[in-house]
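> forwarded from #structure-qc
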């Protein structure tokens, strides 16, 4: 088994990994549409403000598995956080152990103390983590929303109940120039760290544009809805969604500034962005989102809007 360093932004990397991921996800998540190149491109691309490590295990010229880690450049002592996959035909043959060892070595070279890896919760994964001496440090769930049937009525009802004193503005693709600075300031209040992505300390208009360019390179169209005071120009809340060439889209962030919470803005915003995307994309049938179980407010919001949990994931820590 040979470990190779890969460039997650190279189309050849995505093409090489696509068959293994399609087989893996058809087993792990059989209710999902087939994995697309756009989905893998988004998963493996280098993100703004990060270093991205992608290591592949190869049996000859055939990929057996892959480890991808994101390192926050603004936190030089922080962990490498990502995921490790071994494709079905190569399990129990040492690929996972070799990838973990190579990932730890890469982190040590960079002075990083910790590897965090997310994996579907399953007996095989728990055994593998125990063999490596990894500690369970977090749990998350994948929630899915079907945009037809009862959930559609829930979204329509939520959108029909606007929050007094506020107005919504939405866009597709790049943020309008007159809103990019207010949008960056609202983003600065986001506290939740996302797997493999940095926590941007003082987001600017340039950071917003960089994230938009990432989405465009990976074939994803951002749908964004923001809330402003009825007679103001300050963005006090926003919700995002990323649509690609697939029946399934990814929910992004939903944020309400602290002084504007407990008024129903999050419900109104998220329902609006979901409903507008469904109306504009006739092929869109599912939306997925991964939530840390400790983030009870977001878990409750998604449940209220009709999301249902279909799988659980574990985060394991290995000291480099």
């Amino acid at each position: 088994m040979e470990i190779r360093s890969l460039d997650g932004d190279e189309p050849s990397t995505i093409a090489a990994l696509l068959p293994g991921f399609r087989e893996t996800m058809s087993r792990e998540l059989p209710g999902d549409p087939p994995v697309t190149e756009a989905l893998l491109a988004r998963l493996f691309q280098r993100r703004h403000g990060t270093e991205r490590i992608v290591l592949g295990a190869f049996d000859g010229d055939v990929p057996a598995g892959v480890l991808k880690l994101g390192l926050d450049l603004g936190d030089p002592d922080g962990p490498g956080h990502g995921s490790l996959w071994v494709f079905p035909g190569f399990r129990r043959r040492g690929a996972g152990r070799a990838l973990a060892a190579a990932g730890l070595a890469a982190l040590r070279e960079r002075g990083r103390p910790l590897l965090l890896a997310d994996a579907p919760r399953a007996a095989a994964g728990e055994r593998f983590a125990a063999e490596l001496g990894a500690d369970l440090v977090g749990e998350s769930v994948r929630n899915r929303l079907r945009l037809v049937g009862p959930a559609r009525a829930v979204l329509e009802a939520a959108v029909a109940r606007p929050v007094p004193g506020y107005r919504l503005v939405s866009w597709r693709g790049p943020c309008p120039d007159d809103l990019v600075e207010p949008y960056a300031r609202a983003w600065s209040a986001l506290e939740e760290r996302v797997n493999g992505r940095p926590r941007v300390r003082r987001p600017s208009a340039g950071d917003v544009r960089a994230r938009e360019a990432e989405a465009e390179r990976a074939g994803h169209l951002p749908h964004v809805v923001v809330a402003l005071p009825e007679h103001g120009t300050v963005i006090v809340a926003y919700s995002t969604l990323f649509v690609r060439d697939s029946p399934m889209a990814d929910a992004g962030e939903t944020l309400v500034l602290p002084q504007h919470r407990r008024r129903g803005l999050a419900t109104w915003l998220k329902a609006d962005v979901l409903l507008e995307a469904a109306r504009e994309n006739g092929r869109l049938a599912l939306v997925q989102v991964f939530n840390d179980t400790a983030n009870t407010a977001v878990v409750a919001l998604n449940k209220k809007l009709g999301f249902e949990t279909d799988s659980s994931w574990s985060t394991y820590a290995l000291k480099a």
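QC bot note: Residues 151 and 306 are 5 Å apart (CA to CA). The radius of gyration is 20 Å.
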